[in-house]
């Protein structure tokens, strides 16, 4: 079984790194953990930070800020 965690980001450069480190520290037992970051058109360099510090985490970039619900739905798709 695989566990997928969707993290929605919008200009969260000051917070997203700590969030992702915490998720990577979770003991998922025998289940694979997949982390997907959905970025809602950030302009603060947070996407570049995620890609450089967490190259194994999937990042999806929305062309505009789609809001909370649609941003999370993008990750679920």
Q: How would you characterize this protein structure?
A:
The chain has 77 residues and is α/β, with parallel strands linked by helices. Helix content is 35%, strand content 26%. The chain has three helices and three strands, in the order E-H-E-H-E-H. The chain has helices spanning 16-24, 46-53, 67-76, and strands at residues 2-9, 32-39, 58-61. It has a three-stranded parallel sheet with strand order 1-2-3, sandwiched between helices. The longest helix has 10 residues, at 67-76. The two termini are 18 Å apart.
Question: How does the SSE layout of this entry go?
Answer:
Blueprint: E1 2-9, H1 16-24, E2 32-39, H2 46-53, E3 58-61, H3 67-76
Parallel strand pairs: 1-2, 2-3
Describe the structure using short key phrases.
about 80 residues, alpha/beta, three-stranded parallel sheet, 3 helices, globular
Number of continuous helical runs: 3
Structural class: alpha/beta
Question: Which strand order spans the largest sheet, edge to edge or round the barrel?
Answer: 1-2-3
| Portion in beta strands | 25-35%
Instruction: Tell me the series of helices and strands, N- to C-terminal.
Output: EHEHEH
Instruction: Kindly state the percentage of residues in helix.
Output: 25-40%
Average pLDDT value? 95
Q: What is the radius of gyration computed over CA atoms, rounded to a whole number of angstroms? A: 12 Å
The geometry reads as globular
DSSP E strands, number = 3
Alpha carbon gap, first and last residue: 18 Å
Low-confidence stretches: none
Largest beta sheet, briefly?
3 strands, parallel
